[in-house]
Each structure stands twice: as C-alpha cells, then as structure tokens.
Amino acid sequence: MSSSNAPVKIGICGLGTVGYGSYTLLQNNRQDLARRVGGDVMVSHIGSRRLRPGQDIGNTRYSADPFAVVNDAEVDIVLELLGGIDVARPLVLQAIANGKHVVTANKALIAQHGNEIFAAAAANKVLVAYEAAVAGGIPIIKAIREGLAGNRIQWLAGIINGTGNFILTEMREKGRAFAEVLQEAQALGYAEADPTFDVEGIDAAHKLTILASIAFGIPLQFSKTYTEGISQLTQQDIRYADELGYRIKHLGISRRTPQGIELRVHPTFIDEDSLIANVNGVMNAVMVNGDAVGSTLYYGAGAGAAPTASAVVADIIDVARMISNPESGVPALAYQDDSLSDLPILPMAEVRSAYYLRITALDQVGVLSDITEILGDCAINIEAIIQKEPRGVDALSQRVPVIILTHEVQEKKMNDAIAQIEALPTVAERVMRVRVFRLDA
C-alpha cells in the first residue's frame, strides 16, 4: 500500500466504455488530480479480457485476469467496472479482504449486495465508493449524502434511466410507437439487445434502491422495490396526458410516510410545467425535497464514457484523500452503520396516489354511470373525465375511450375498483392505469 509520499496507485478491472473513459480522464487530468489530492494518482495495473481496437494504455501493466489486479500488492484502489454480479461480487469482496479500497459504477451490485459489501469494507477499514452507480455524471450521491446532510429528506423522484426517457420523448414529440422507438434506441446503443432492464424499470429500481437508502438511512432493499415498465403505454396515453396538462415520465419515487418508506418505479403523470417534466431525450434528473432546503433538482447526462468517468474519478479523489487522512471518510450509506433505521418499505397496495385511467368501453348508454358508481363505492373521488367520440377502428367496433383522473387514494382501493370495472360486460379491454405524482406531495 502507498506511503504518504508515494503515489496512490489505481487498478482498473474492466476496460469497456466506462473503464477506458476513466483511464483516459485519469491520464489527461493527472496534474490537476495531484493538486486536489496532495500527491500523485496513477493507473498502475489494468485487468480486462481484451483490449479493444483504439485503446492505448501505453506502458501500463496489463493482465487478462482482473483478479490479478485485485491481488497486486501495489494497487491501493480497485476500480470495479466490469458490470454484472457473478464476477464483480467475488472480485470486490476479494479486493476488500486484501485491504484495498474500491470504486465501482455497478448499481446492480450495490443495490443487491451492498449491505454485505459495506459490512466487509467496515470490518477491513476500507472504503467502497459508488457515485457513478446512479445517474452517470450527476453527483447525486454526494448531494444527498453530504450536501443535504442537514435535512430530513421527505421525498425524491427521478428520471434515472435515459433509455426509457428517450423512448417516451420520441413517442410524445414525434408521435412514434413504442416498438419503433425501442428499435432505434437499440441501434443507437442506448438499449441492449434484451432491453428488459431499461424498459421494465429494473435498472431504475437498482438506482432508486441506492438513493432511498442514503436519503432515509435504511438498509438496501432492492427486492422490496415495486417495478413497472413503459411497454404498455400507447400514443393515446401520451396524447391524453397532454390534454390534461401532464407529461408521462418513467419515474423512480421514494417518499417518507408515517407508515414507512415508499419505493416504486413506474410510468407517472407529472404536471407539464414542472422542471422534471421537461427533461427529455437521454438526460437524467433527480428532484430531492428536504425539510430545510425545499425541492432541489439535479440534471445532467446519466450515462456515457465521459460523464460516468467524471463520477468515477471524483470517487477516486475522495478515496485518495482518505488514504492521506484516514479520519475524513463519510459513512457508505450516509448514516452511521449502527444507526440505520428499521422503517418498513410500504407494500405497493398501501401507497397513496392519484390516478389516470383509460377505459375502453362499448359505446352504450349507462356505461359511464356504471364506472363512476364503482369508483364512488370504492371511495374514489374523480377530478376530471374525458369521454371521446369513437373514431376509426373504434367507431367500427363501437368502442369509446373513457379517460378519468382521480384524487389521491390508497392503491388497494384502486385495485379493487379496476377489477370491478374490468368485469363489466361493457368494458372491452384491460384498464390502463398510470399513477400521478404531484411535486408538492
């Protein structure tokens, strides 16, 4: 390990887009980094299955096995940039056992195994830093963990997956269908060949799990995060949202309530005038509401080599400073390890929300009264109703869309109402439901 006068030596595991971007940034800004840290910071060992065309690592030591980096006695900080869990988890645990600090951009690893990893790090007196795991280049972890540390966080809501935001933006602005935009997102490299993690909200759920833990001082609980994707949204829903004065965004939401913590990812209606409703394309944004500061917004690039490398290198600086001054660290999940709260995660059925409902019904007398009667019996108040004249295919089949915006109600009551509405012989399809999130909630 480095002495106080020796350079801090970095070992990079994984030389993909983010790995090489981090290497390049460390090389390009080496002098500035030394000034910030108070000593030289250098990449001494790279572990990657292969070097890609155009990747120039000069005379830096290279190994095809990333575990060679972890077991290199000279390496002080291990950058885990492999992604996935199967190799990354044992690699990180081995690095910690070897007394090395770890910087990672791996949101799945932290969300699913962070409790174990942080406990191991504490036992071995090393740091695990993970700013790049959420929202790419936006320093949202530091903002919540340090900048807002004087606040009691009330809620946070974020667009934390750029692929889903790109799809919804294209659907709204250009009138395109979901499947068509998804295909383009894959061609552009925004979405994987299997897009499930992005479009079904799993990627966002990993990130939300991390944000909620540092915001509310609770253990990481990915398995309790409610997750719903955007693949069922149609042009109709986008259009009706506009008519009602809303935009649809795929949000991760976590909110403190007297009963526990909400932890949920799903398509959401947001007031069209709010800042976050106007975050478009592949950009990310997170709103955080604290009791002292009120609502704050953090916006920027949520992915890509340079933005993510920016967050990785910021973590390296923090860890390198800590090597020089071991008493300067911040707890991994913002709160002291023995002070994490046992506040429960609310089941989705207990969450309260307003709702947008799109009901496809037969164009017959009495249908609307049947629907409103069910909602009334379930103690659900209606804010707005739009009933459209049937057109095109709907006119031929005598089906009409009924759009309803409700006041806030417990989800289990809405589930009951939707089940009853779908059982009506005059209702032709499953009810489309989108939750509404009001930023003054």
Can you walk me through this structure?
- Helices cover 36% and strands 24% of the residues.
- It has 3 domains: 163 residues, 3-Layer(aba) Sandwich (Rossmann fold), CATH 3.40.50; 162 residues, Dihydrodipicolinate Reductase, domain 2 (2-Layer Sandwich), CATH 3.30.360; 86 residues, Alpha-Beta Plaits (2-Layer Sandwich).
- 46% of the residues are buried.
- With 441 residues, it is of the alpha/beta class.
- The protein is built from 15 helices and 17 strands.
- Strands 7, 8, 9, 10, 11, 12, 13, 14, 15, 16 and 17 form an 11-stranded mixed beta sheet that branches. It has a 6-stranded parallel beta sheet with strand order 3-2-1-4-5-6, with helices on both faces.
- The mean pLDDT is 93.
Annotation keywords:
single chain; 441 residues; alpha/beta; Rossmann fold; Dihydrodipicolinate Reductase, domain 2; Alpha-Beta Plaits; 3 domains; eleven-stranded mixed sheet; six-stranded parallel sheet; 24% strand; elongated
SSE layout and pairing:
Elements: E1 8-13, H1 17-28, H2 30-37, E2 41-47, E3 61-63, H3 66-70, E4 77-80, H4 88-97, E5 101-104, H5 107-123, E6 128-129, H6 140-147, E7 153-159, H7 162-174, H8 178-187, H9 196-199, H10 202-216, E8 226-227, H11 235-243, E9 246-257, E10 260-271, E11 283-290, E12 294-301, H12 305-324, E13 352-362, H13 367-377, E14 382-387, H14 392-397, E15 399-406, E16 409-410, H15 411-422, E17 432-436
Parallel strand pairs: 1-2, 1-4, 2-3, 4-5, 5-6, 8-10, 10-17
Antiparallel strand pairs: 7-9, 7-11, 9-10, 11-12, 13-15, 13-16, 13-17, 14-15
Helix pairs in contact: 1-12, 4-5, 5-10, 7-8, 13-15
